[in-house]
Design brief:
Length: 319
């Protein structure tokens, strides 16, 4: 079994500790190319992030940054700051501001090329999403501007649809917390219209899979049907959070009708919006039709569902 296969096995198993140990051993016993070493750094950080261990995460990522400044080609500098889970996990150890510094360094020193547009987009996306999660809404504005400028670089970019839906999602969140309801409603209308007009037959049926965390993975095409479904799923989750429940239900319904399987997090958001827009009976029907998730698990994802759970228990006792 080669390193890629062994790595993929730990990912499938969710063995974050095993993945870290595997990559560290691989690094110590092999002469690695620049791209291989960058891949190891990125995934070791990802493992620590998924384990919610901010101290070793910070140590590894600081080493990644210092090594990257000396060894990565300038166009690859955004590689270091392309994952929101890593960024958010740093905040657990009060080191998130270092991530902002690394991001700014990449913005200042990386050329804007076609060959690194995917990584640059993921870099902006990661920081903007982390600002949202940390409720640092005012700081989203500059990153959103960076994203918009990137999207406008090339109207033939293969990832344009994925990027536009993703950008609109994050801008909607920003506008919601800026209390700019008119602009938010206008953008939401445009976004739903954009999705309604998608020519699904023009999208790739299959997605070429690259190794997670690699430079190729970050710059891969996001033009498959699954990629756009993922962007729509993320948008639908955000719409629940910003209380656009009717549109959220509409998107989630389209996704499920197309065969896209919602994970527990997304299904919890869907139920929240169903509850707000259609009531408790509609929630009961959705739960009866989908026995994949326990209600207690869904409440962990969306604590607001605790009210739904209590009402369901009350109704059951009444009957």
């Amino acid at each position: 079994m080669n390193i890629t296969q062994a790595f993929q096995e730990t990912v499938v198993q969710g063995d974050h500790r095993g993945m870290i140990d595997l990559l560290k051993k691989y690094e110590q016993t092999n002469r690695l190319s620049i791209n291989e070493r960058g891949w190891v750094y990125w995934n070791v950080s990802d493992g620590y992030a998924l384990l919610r261990e901010p101290k070793p995460l910070y140590a590894n990522h600081l080493a990644f940054f210092e090594w990257g400044k000396e060894n990565l080609a300038p166009e690859q500098l955004h590689w270091i700051v392309t994952d929101s889970t890593q960024a958010l996990s740093l905040s657990l150890g009060d080191d998130f501001n270092h991530w902002i510094d690394w991001y700014q360094y990449a913005c200042d020193h990386a050329p804007k090329l076609d060959s690194n547009r995917g990584a640059r987009f993921e870099s902006h996306r990661a920081l903007c999403g982390t600002f949202w999660a940390l409720e640092r809404y005012s700081e989203m504005a500059q990153v959103l501007e960076n994203m918009e400028q990137l999207i406008e670089e090339d109207d033939q970019w293969c990832n344009l649809l994925f990027a536009r839906i993703t950008y609109n999602k994050q801008r909607l969140a920003y506008l919601y917390h800026s209390r700019d309801e008119r602009e938010a409603d206008s953008l939401l209308h445009d976004t739903m219209h954009l999705i309604d007009k998608i020519d699904w037959s023009s999208l790739d049926q299959m997605k070429k899979e690259e190794v997670i965390g690699s430079w190729q993975w970050l710059n891969a095409s996001r033009s498959s049907q699954r990629d756009i479904h993922i962007a729509m799923n993320n948008l639908a989750c955000m719409l629940t959070d910003i209380e656009k429940h009717g549109e959220s239900v509409r998107l989630f319904t389209r996704l499920q009708d197309s065969g896209y399987a919602l994970n527990g997090y997304a299904f919890s958001k869907y139920l929240c919006s169903v509850w707000e827009s259609e009531g408790i009976e509609a929630v009961r029907e959705e739960l009866a039709a989908n026995a994949t998730f326990e209600m207690s698990e869904l409440v962990k994802h969306s604590p607001r569902l605790s009210e739904v759970l209590e009402q369901l228990k009350h109704d059951k006792n009444e009957n």
